[in-house]
Write a structure and sequence with these properties.
Bound molecules: (3S)-3,7-diaminoheptanoic acid, zinc ion
CATH class of one domain: Mainly Alpha
Helix content: 40-55%
Radius of gyration: 27 Å
Structural class: alpha+beta
CATH architecture of one domain: Alpha Horseshoe
Strand content: 15-25%
């Protein structure tokens, strides 16, 4: 496994002025004729990428067939003797087998529909090509198949009689190529851009699914409006197509003018999708649409720059959701995900910088660090240069780099040029891995408050030395009577240790720090429970309010794990929250949710304690039961008050009420034997409440009948059956979780080659912390078995799911021994893919 290094980047010696493809689709043998117009820019060989399974039939330059001496195929590389100067056309003819493509990379079949996935390096499995993002060309594509719908990128040129011609005038890298062909139905709409271009919009689904595509279409229209209004970005073709397919390795793909989506992120109806599904659909439709500017018009020079498009596009979709729904709730949800996935990544063997400098398999770097931390870094940049500076810099970015394959250096340069700020220290956020720990202490004397901060970042693989970074720390001061005496101020920390002072204060204030989670750091500060409870009720910053409650809950759980009983401050604070009828229900629901078992394990491990998954599980259960006993009446009142009687809408208001209602039910469920959950399951008319109730019934240990009923009712709806596969291992008692997963895996309808089904079952188990980390190692064995089985079929999915092992070293010696054996068994398997091999190799180290 030879890694690719950022420092090895060399420009391609040829320009590609046009790409013409002529594709004849057939399930087992599709033929692809390609004509590539090259013109030489520098000396060097003509090197193309070519997938192993591509059957190369013919190569010609300017019509003259190449003989065996003029080219060489070596692994995934094709070297061709090319003219020493000038322009020429390279033609190739290949045959590929879409029906044998179970890795879902390149051209494949999903439920009878031909489709493609080319990012990052899938195009080489379709035709020999310079498969790198800095080689961009306009595409002209002819598709031939006796199928009703034939789609590719760009604008349609002609269609009929089983032939369709497409032209995409915008030069694009190969990873943005797509084609789709099959029996599909469109749910259509229309959008007129600010400058008056009429754009036809289609969401393509399988016949019968049309009634579940409206929300995706509405979300697309909202995204187009928002990007014009907030970023001044218009769409640039006459047509925008979205296609839903059932077999898809990730969420969705931003191919130019032809986004391809996992059907999970398109199809929704109140009876089959939850509020969370709707919110995700809206967010991902927006994300892929926003890529049209941040990713497609301006793309990445090489894959090391992935965060250039992903971090920025995540940041944009987060802003969008904040505008469509509640900004406070969205921020808290994003921080929860960041901590659960990215902080975890940063603390383990898979830690890497937002811009990595080496990889073996690029698909292993579509990570929480590149995406979510990449977005946090942009949030910090915006905070540091201000909203106006940010707008100026983005304007300059679009002007200066439209049509480019750009780098992080280009990105930082527009901020420097637009604002005059030196960002050399800030750049460490891109190049250095790890989560900084910031400690804060206070000193109070005669109306004078000093805040002292110290930052340090633990070493990460390959990076021992961590110089200080720029950290924007947003703080506010609150007087003891609850008034805000100093509104949010951003302190810029640049040194390893630094202090900031506030004068003229009448009384010692309570410090609200890291407001809005102004930097992706861990804030370490001593605070007693009373002060945390004070902030939970008085802080004006909703994130900081929630955070105070979260810390209180964490500390309560940690104390219980040391054998203490839960303190009154936390339990009383919950009582106050429940009584607050004016608060936003979605916000309250987040405050009622206890920290996850995984989160507690992480905190313990950081503090040098070996986490005991069973003890953590027991403590969390005990705390929930205690809260339910203490506040039964208040919880019942909330449960009754939050019932929604209006017809179902997936908006922020209704979904907030449902989430608070379910949060109250989750607590009541501990003491009512599952009675209320069963009643809700029977009467609810929407999937949010039905799936929520079903999960709680499983927890209560009485769900067999409900599970059968649910399966019968939805047996034809794949996405709902995925939920059925996920909920059971997720909510099973820890000592039964592995057995439940084994039992489900043996079923006929465990169609494991479908990524959604595989992720549902395997991901359900690995998200059950104490279940997956069963002391006897059966959870690890189960995962290892399935990773090996999946690796032979779909390496990307196997590699992605293997990250469940990433924190194995934090547990006790017996568990470590079991995990080590499972990891070694994977490593010693013959024919391990590059994907899984790299992941397990890094995890095992
Ligand atoms: N750019 C794609 C992800 C491609 C993943 C390749 N393994 C979707 C997105 O981030 O928008
Ligand atoms: Zn993206």
């Amino acid at each position: 496994q030879v890694p690719t290094q950022l420092s090895d980047y060399r420009p391609y010696p040829f320009a590609l002025t046009e790409t013409r493809l002529d594709v004849t689709l057939a399930a087992e043998a599709s033929s692809i004729l390609a004509e590539l117009d090259f013109s030489r820019r520098a000396p060097g060989a003509l090197v193309l990428d070519i997938g192993k399974a591509v059957d190369l039939r013919r190569l010609a330059i300017d019509g003259a067939e190449l003989d065996a001496a003029q080219w060489r195929r070596d692994g995934e590389i094709l070297r061709i003797d090319a003219p020493a100067e000038g322009s020429f056309t390279l033609s190739s003819e290949v045959v590929v087998n879409p029906s044998a493509n179970t890795a879902f990379e390149g051209l494949y079949l999903s439920g009878g529909i031909f489709c493609t996935q080319c990012e990052a390096e899938g195009f080489r499995h379709i035709t020999p090509y310079p498969d790198r993002p800095d080689v961009m060309a306009p595409f002209r594509v002819t598709l031939r198949a006796d199928l009703p719908v034939l789609l590719s990128n760009g604008n349609p040129v002609s269609a009929g009689d089983g032939v369709a011609v497409w032209h995409d005038p915008w030069p694009k890298p190969a990873y943005l190529f797509a084609l789709v062909a099959g029996d599909l139905r469109a749910v259509s709409g229309q959008f007129t851009t600010a400058s008056g271009r009429d754009v036809a919009l289609n969401v393509w689904v399988r016949p019968g699914d049309e009634s579940r595509a409206d929300y995706a279409l509405e979300s697309l229209i909202r995204s187009m409006e928002w990007d014009e209004k907030v970023y001044g970005r218009e769409y640039d073709l006459d047509l925008f197509n979205i296609v839903a397919v059932d077999d898809f390795n990730m969420g969705a793909m931003e191919n130019k003018g032809l986004n391809i989506f996992n059907s999970k992120l398109v199809l929704a109806s109140p009876d089959t999708a939850t509020d969370a599904d709707y919110e995700r659909i809206e967010g991902v439709i927006a994300h892929e649409y926003f890529h049209n500017w941040t990713g497609n018009r301006i793309t990445c020079r090489d894959w090391f720059q992935l965060c250039l498009k992903e971090g920025l596009t995540v940041f944009r979709d987060q802003q969008f959701t904040a505008d469509m729904r509640s900004a406070a709730v969205k921020r808290i949800e994003d921080v929860l995900t960041l901590r659960a996935r990215q902080f975890r990544e940063d603390q383990g063997p898979l830690a890497h910088p937002v811009r990595p400098d080496s990889y073996v398999e690029i698909n292993n770097f579509y990570t929480a660090t590149v995406y979510e931390k990449g977005a946090e870094v942009i949030g910090m940049l915006k905070l540091l240069v201000g909203d106006e500076g940010y707008d100026k810099a983005l304007g300059l970015y679009f002007d200066r780099h439209d049509g480019d394959a750009a780098t992080i250096e280009d990105w930082l340069k527009v901020f420097e040029d637009a604002t005059g700020r030196d960002l050399s220290q800030f750049k460490r956020w891109y190049t250095d891995a790890g989560t900084p720990v910031v400690t804060m202490t206070e000193d109070w004397q005669d109306g004078h408050l000093t805040l002292r901060f110290a930052q340090s970042t633990p070493p990460t693989p390959g990076q021992d030395d961590k110089p200080p970074r720029v950290i924007p720390i947003a703080v506010g001061l609150i007087s003891p009577n609850g008034d805000e005496v100093v509104p949010t101020t951003v302190l810029e920390m640049t040194e390893a240790e630094q202090e900031f002072s506030f004068d003229g204060l009448a009384a010692r204030p309570v410090v609200s720090a890291l407001r809005g989670f102004s930097a992706p750091v861990m804030l370490d500060r001593q605070m007693d429970a009373t002060t945390r409870a004070f902030l939970l009720s008085h802080d004006t910053d909703p994130f900081a309010r929630w955070e105070a409650g979260r810390q209180l809950a964490r500390e309560t759980l940690l104390a219980m794990l040391r054998g203490e009983s839960p303190g009154a401050e936390y339990l009383d604070a919950i009582g106050q929250l429940l009584a607050d009828e004016a608060a936003d229900p979605a916000f309250l629901a987040l405050c009622l949710r206890l920290p996850s078992e995984e989160e507690i394990a992480t905190v313990q491990a950081q503090g040098g304690t070996t986490p005991d998954p069973d003890a953590i599980h027991a403590a969390r259960e005990a705390l929930a039961t205690e809260i339910a006993r203490r506040h039964e009446a208040a919880l019942e009142a909330v449960y009754a008050r939050m019932e929604v009687s209006a017809p179902y809408r997936p908006d922020a208001d209704q979904s907030g009420r449902r989430s608070l209602r379910l949060a109250a039910l989750a607590l009541l469920n501990r003491i009512d034997g599952g009675r209320r959950a069963a009643a809700l399951f029977a009467e609810a008319g929407n999937m949010t409440e039905r799936a929520g109730a079903l999960g709680l019934m499983i927890q209560a240990g009485d769900a067999q009948q409900a599970l059968s009923e649910f399966h019968r009712e939805f047996s034809g709806v794949r996405l709902v059956i995925d939920k059925w596969f996920m909920l059971q291992p997720l909510h099973a008692e820890p000592d039964q979780a592995v057995a439940v997963a084994q039992h489900l895996a043996a079923r006929d309808d465990f169609d494991w080659k479908n990524p959604n089904r595989f992720r549902a079952l395997i991901g359900g188990l690995t998200a059950n912390h104490a279940g997956f980390h069963a002391a006897d190692g059966t959870g690890y064995d189960f995962l290892a078995d399935w990773l090996l089985k999946m690796d032979a079929v779909n390496p990307q999915i196997a590699a992605r799911m293997s990250a469940a092992f990433e924190s194995w070293t934090r547990y006790d010696a017996d568990r470590r021994k079991h995990a080590e054996a499972a990891l070694d068994r994977i490593l010693s398997a013959p024919a391990l893919s590059r994907n899984l091999g790299e992941m397990i190799g890094r995890i095992r180290n």
